[in-house]
Design goal:
Chain A is α/β, with parallel strands linked by helices and 233 residues long. Chain A is built from 6 helices and 11 strands. Chain A has one domain: Glutaconate Coenzyme A-transferase (3-Layer(aba) Sandwich), CATH 3.40.1080.10. Chain B has 216 residues and is α/β, with parallel strands linked by helices. In chain B, 46% of the residues are buried. The chains are: A alpha/beta (233), B alpha/beta (216). Chains A and B meet through helix 4, helix 5 and helix 6 of A and helix 3 and helix 4 of B. Chain A: Belongs to the 3-oxoacid CoA-transferase subunit A family.
Chain lengths: 233, 216
Amino acid sequence: MNKVFPDAASALDGLLFDGMTLMAGGFGLCGVPEHLIEALKASGTKNLTIISNNAGVDGDGLGVLLETRQIAKMVSSYVGENKLFEKQYLDGDLELEFNPQGTLAERIRAGGAGIPAFFTKTGVGTLVAEGKEIRDFDGEDYVMESWLRSDVSIVKAWKGDTEGNLIFRKTARNFNAPMATAGKITVAEVEELVEPGELQADEIHCAGIFVQRIIDGGSYRKVIEKRTTRPRS
Amino acid sequence: MAWTRDEMAARAAKELSDGFYVNLGIGIPTLVANYIPEGMHVTLHSENGMLGIGPFPYEGEEDPDLINAGKQTVTELPHSSYFDSAASFGMIRGGHINLAILGAMQVAENGDLANWMIPGKLVKGMGGAMDLVAGVQRVVVVMDHNSKAGDVKFLKACDLPLTGTHVVDLLITDIGVFDIDKKNGGVTLIEIAPGVTVDEIRERTEASFEVAPGLA
């Protein structure tokens, strides 16, 4: 068994097909799998359904796959940072399914944990509950939401080992950890790839069982979306 | 005279208690962090996966791996912790967060809230707002009493698509503070900005409300 691939293109080789469903980790541009997104762009795979909290910004993150018109549908909670997204959506070139952010996260977690549906109070009485089953538990209404799974999940971690064990850094963990569990195949890119034993077993955030392929991403651009600072007094 | 944004934030800060875990929305709610009373321990939750949000970093110390839910660079504190998005919304949905302070486009007298979508305009998405209002123990809304165009925002029923039904406990505007009984219905005006009259508030409000004894 070898999970380690030399680069992003080889790690995705044989996994991609037109019309497939992908999950892509990250929150805004924080913790996005930037090398795997570039490789996805280079692959030219089309008609993608992408499950990701956001759609990147113009020219960055998943925004690069909008430029090449590879995305047919997004499943997201917030897409407000992207002009090209706006244009393609208004032109009818892009389908969009909004999920409340917590419902999106839980649908992914449920997908990874083998739970086909769950009930939540989120969205009861709103547009997102339309057409879905409502059930009363202890006198309150809950809406049924179904699991999400992907053909391939692409995730970004801070450190990983050759077994696929992952450690994330700060708020870059976000959707990366649950998405890693919900892919038929999960491909991870890391800033630092080490041998087994070099990561503390007690400090692993995502166990290698969820990761089938892994690459050392080398250098990272790590774009900051909104740089906010305070003055030194 | 109407309250300023900072005065509204300071009023919202009075809803905090020692030991609270709190989620602050974007805009005026973010300012509430500046008015946490000294000596009170309040932990701020960021739905992208952090408890214990610190202040903005000094220039040159920004960390791209450390942002808040508004995607702004922030810092960590000694008691901070990080977790994934599913765990973060488990905290919200599971009722572990004591208080959420949010902005709104419309609030109704039954506690309904609309703050994510205007039909006919491009919709950016609800983000975590629906999860927050459905899951957090107590929801405080801070908003201007009327829109810039003068439209009434505190209504009998919201006409914009809802974020949640029967969710708002307290409404703080630039001219008054309203207690909302979201379970049984009923609104009480409990505070008025200096120089503002109850009549003026009635003129600028569609929702019906009682006036707390001693106010008028």
